[in-house]
Each structure stands twice: as structure tokens, then as C-alpha cells.
Amino acid sequence: QSGLTQPPSVSAAPGQKVTISCSGSSSNIGLNYVSWYQHVPGTAPKLLIFDKNHRPSGIPDRFSASKSGASATLVITGLQTGDEADYYCGTWDSSLSAGVFGTGTKVTVV
Amino acid sequence: QVELVQSGAEVKKPGASVKISCKSSGYSFTSYYIHWVRQAAGQGLEWMAMIDPTGVATTSAQKFQGRVTMTSDTSTATVYMDLSSLRSDDAAIYYCTREGYSSTLDYWGQGTLVTVSS
Which pLDDT score, from 0 to 100, does residue A2 have? Predict the structure, then answer.
């Protein structure tokens, strides 16, 4: 099953900005909305961003996302120690008729 | 409030089957698909399958086809996922999750740890 490609890790100091890329194809990101999830190991993943750039209630506007063609990007500004987690992009692959996730990116606040 | 509550941890031998339940509350059960996602130790999230809780349709990733069976009990708002012929690499935390607006996975169960060991 094909997946989406993300950088393994990103890091930045508190208050800074990190950008996480998510690369897919015309059958997944190119056709469908991308969601972003925050996952702290041992807990359930949490939805951060859905649709074009919508946040569920309670998610701060420090989290934003965009999409261009077959790629998507998550941006976290004003980085906080509580943001340390694994981040995944996810969408539907219309050719596979299956869900697909990114490979995951570990965010570290240094 | 929306809640998905999964059954407890399981220990199974290779070749056996495991059946995990996911009980929904706080919303109209038959109006939202339920997906199953797993995470093996040190690995990323892996999409497995989804079910229309009315029981009309199910879809699974190619690698699980023939091994995964999902059922739904509308009387108890519970979805079940049965994974057969377990192998050591099936050891993982299994999550059920609700498909909401724009096909996003908006609510997640707490996860069920499945250990596969002889």
C-alpha cells in the first residue's frame, strides 16, 4: 500500500516555526482533502487540521495547513514544549480505495 | 459528547484471531463510517479498513483483505474488527476512529494493544 512521504523529524526552539511537508500523488493528495493529526505515543491521535485549513474546536491558530497539487504542508508557529509529538498527514487514495497516512514527523522543541 | 470506547488488551498466539470492539456514543451511530488504524511499535499509523455501520459496505487495505472482517451491531452502537491468522508483525495498538466532515478522522478510540506471542 502506497503511503505519503514526510520528513522523519524537525526541530526548533520555543517560539519558532516549523514546517512539515507531506508528499503524495495525483490519486490521493491531488484529489482529496488532507487532514493532519498530532500523536503523542501512548495516547489516541488527535485531529489538528481538516478540509482546506479548518481546525476543530480547541486547536489553536498556531497550527495551519495548505495544499498545492500533490503536496501538503503543516506549519506550527510559536512552538511550545507541549507541541512535542509525532505529526501525520492523512487522506483517501481514490485509486487504491483506501486511506493513506504519511510516514510521520517527530517534532522536537530544542 | 462523542466517545469511542474500545475493548481491552489482548494476547494471542501466532495463527489465532483477535476480535476488537468499538462502542460509540454521543452521536447518530449509523450516520458515520468507522475506520480502523493501527500502529506497531516504532512504526507510523497504518490504515486498515472501514465499515459503514449500517453494515451495507466495508473496505479494507489490500494487505488485509481475506484476514480482516468487520461487523456492526446497531442495537448497541458497536463495531467489531476481527483479524485472523495473526503473525508477530500484527502486534500493534489498534484504534477505531470516526470519519467525519470531509472524510477526516475526527474522533478516536483509546486504542487496544494486541500482543502476538507464542
Answer: 60
Average pLDDT of every residue of chain A: 95
CA distances from B32 to A24, A87, A97, B19, B107 (A): 26, 24, 17, 21, 11
B contacts of A91 (beta carbons < 8 Å): 103
| Rounded-to-integer distance, Cα A5 and Cα B94, Å | 22
Q: What is the pLDDT of residues B8-51, one digit of tens each?
A: 999 999 999 999 999 999 999 999 999 999 999 999 999 999 99
Q: Give the list of residues 6+ apart from residue A70 with CB closer than 8 angstroms, or none.
A: A23, A24, A25, A26, A28, A29, A30
CB nearest A92 (choices: B60, B103, B110): B103
At residue B76, what is the residue type? Answer: T
